[in-house]
């Protein structure tokens, strides 16, 4: 069956570009909606200190903060890739922070006014060298959720407020692969399917993500308001947002 699907897509390469444009169009719309939610959720000033956790180059938080008074020198971009954060520092003037996967960040409790974390927590799972060999969905879920708890605790330690977004577990189009219903497969089937689709499909991915539902993200962020972002009438992503009491008045 997998080979049949592969052959179908090989004979219809003309679909690849339209599919890519279609998905990217809806992704851009979603990011704009989330940026608006962020700007409406917090009181932002020149002195607001923000951490973008899992920032890559910081291009996302740069777009989110457009039109706000937040100064670049008060925006910290943290990632495990030194080349990405250095590029962000040079391009946007942000403060680069190199982090290691299993260590706390070198900041005191509540050092940041806001911690921003978008489409990152689902990747905080098992060691990267294990993602292709761990076929047990039960084992992967247990280990991943335990690491996500540690990551969530670090977000809550660092920030007085936070904004955490992650793709929704049950949305029909899986955001890392752009494949329909792929996230619904048992892991023992998911891994071999991705090995095949990665050879020809427009979007390649490692099976390093554990997608969350509303109940799980509420467990991780007990003090947060859980907001659902919808697309085509279905929940596409979920957000955990904590605001200071003063900002709720």
**Global structural class:** alpha/beta
Q: How would you name the oligomeric state of the polypeptide chains in this document?
A: single chain
Tally of strands: 9
Chain-averaged pLDDT: 90
Proportion of residues in extended strands: 15-25%
Work out the count of structural domains: 1
Described by the principal axes of the CA atoms, the overall outline is globular
Report on the architecture of this protein:
The protein has 249 residues and is of the alpha/beta class. The protein has one domain (2-41, 100-248). The protein contains seven helices and nine strands; from the N terminus they run H-H-E-H-E-H-E-E-H-E-E-E-H-H-E-E. It has helices spanning 2-10, 16-41, 59-64, 82-92, 137-158, 187-197, 214-220; strands at 50-53, 75-79, 95-98, 112-118, 159-167, 173-174, 179-180, 225-231, 234-242. It has a seven-stranded mixed beta sheet. Strands 6-7 form a two-stranded antiparallel sheet. The protein is globular. The N and C termini lie far apart (57 Å). The mean pLDDT is 90.
